[in-house]
Amino acid sequence: MAENKPRVLLVEDTQSLAVVYEQYLLQDGYEVLRADRGQQALAQLLTSPPPVVLLDLELPDMSGMTILQQITEQQLPCAVVVITAHGSVDIAVEAMRLGAFDFLTKPFDNKRLCATVRNALKHQQLSSLVAQYKENFDRHSFAGFIGASMPMQAVYRIIESAAPSKATVFITGESGTGKEVCAEAIHQCSPRRERPFIALNCAAIPHDLMESEIFGHVKGSFTGAHGDRKGAASLADGGTLFLDEICEMDLDLQSKLLRFIQTGTLQRVGSGKLETVDVRFVCATNRDPLAEVKAGRFREDLYYRLHVIPLPLPPLRERGEDILLLARNLLQSYAKEEHKRFKDFDPSTVQVMLDYPWPGNVRELQNVIRNIVVLNDRELVSTDILPPPLNGGRFLASTAPASPAPTPDAPECGAGSAIRPLWVVEKEVIEHAIARCDGNIPKAAALLEISPSTIYRKKQGWEDAISV
After folding, report:
1. Are strands 145-146 and 141-142 parallel, antiparallel or unpaired?
2. Fewest CB within 10 angstroms: 158, 221, 425, 451, which?
3. Where on the chain is 4-aspartylphosphate found, per UniProt (predicted)?
4. Residue 190 contacts residue 163 (beta carbons within 8 Å)
């Protein structure tokens, strides 16, 4: 059927040639749309752009270049093949520079035309796939997250896949990696987004009050219970219940939580009445949950009930250039909030921030940028205004162009061995690791427990130093 055939718009004002070209394309399985005027072609392009356009440059009412410019400027999903006479080959080459895929010089035969159109169609299909990939898997931000690194693209894909279901998501990651942001992203991408999102930190509530916080209580059930109170589970009815630091929960309460998950019913503290609620569970911990199970601190049956969709969040040190993406976003946000002039980081500061391991992850980065903005006011962040520990010698030394001179109190490295500059030793260690990994830099970086981008930056620095 015609709707399954690839469409080609043929823009040619010479009727005899247009009929010949149309027959060639019809025989090769294309649906052909024709236009003999520029305005007619533009109307069809703007209404329903075909994947391939055969465009004659010499038209009665306008130049084909004008149509090409419209296609390029409006980013229409079309591969343009320019049709030209012998005398206008230079113009056709210029058209390709402006975005045309290829050109055909008149006269041309059936095989040449169909081969060129096939190539243009494949090119356009590939371009569409690349654009779709970039839209879906090359994002710089997503649902509250900021980050373009491959580990974060994987996080985004899991969130998108898991959010529409009711399956429990178990988020793991170091403190400060954004586990609550992740839980909220799951909720906002789910059909429950219009219902409540209730977060409960199991480590921040005294153990003797935890059951009441989750399930609620009735008046007089314990000292201080002056009235009936709904718990987090009831408040989250129809929405999402996020249990942060769930491995901190007492074993007795874990059994009650398991029963609640299995039955969908709960009892308030001091009440004999069962209540039915509909919640989607998301939980998180900064520990290894399976290790907690093996240590007897977390129920195995609860673990397998909750650990349906594991979602590990990467630490900031493994996210490469995301550090700068986040830092610049925070700098601009805080500068605007505090009415300061900050715009960016100078090159030395960029290097320090990329080399620092960020044990406190995104939360630590937020604190560092807030400290800089509140206590200073200038356009560029330089190393002299970095707060501890980023202003320590260990991190600033890596940005120094020259090697530090040995100090009199420096310890001996071995009998008869000279003290060598730190950057030389570092270079040898990194190059040795790369050689042992057969040139595989990501593998070498993993063994050295640093980011691959750190190795690439240092290699570039060594090459630049040699070329000077």
Report:
1. antiparallel
2. 425
3. 56
4. yes
Is pLDDT of 407 > 70? no
Q: What is the DSSP secondary structure assignment for residue 358, as one 8-state letter? A: -
| CATH topology assigned to domain 142-314 | Rossmann fold (3.40.50)
Name the pTM for this structure: 0.59
Q: What residue spans define the domains of the chain?
A: 2-135, 142-314, 317-399, 422-467
Q: Which residues of 451-468 are buried (b: 16+ CB within 10 A; e: fewer)?
A: bbbbbebbeebbeeeeee
Q: Name 102's bridge partners.
A: 81
CATH topology of domain 422-467: Arc Repressor Mutant, subunit A (1.10.10)
Cα–Cα dist 220/218, whole Å: 6
Which residue in 63, 52, 61 sits closest to 88, CA to CA? 63
In the block, tokens 């005027």 appear at 37
Identify whether the C-beta of residue 85 lies closer than 8 Å to the C-beta of residue 62: no
Three-state secondary structure call for residue 52 = strand
CATH number of 317-399: 1.10.8.60
Q: Which residues contact 269 (CB under 8 A, 6 or more apart)?
A: 211, 212, 215, 216, 217, 218, 221, 222, 225
**Owner of token pair 């100078």:** 346
Neighbours of 302 (CB within 10 A): 22
**DSSP H or E segment with residue 377:** none
Separation of alpha carbons 297 and 311, rounded Å: 21
Residues of the chain above pLDDT 90, percent: 54
Residue with tokens 């202003």: 391
Confidence at 137, pLDDT banded by 50, 70, 90:
low
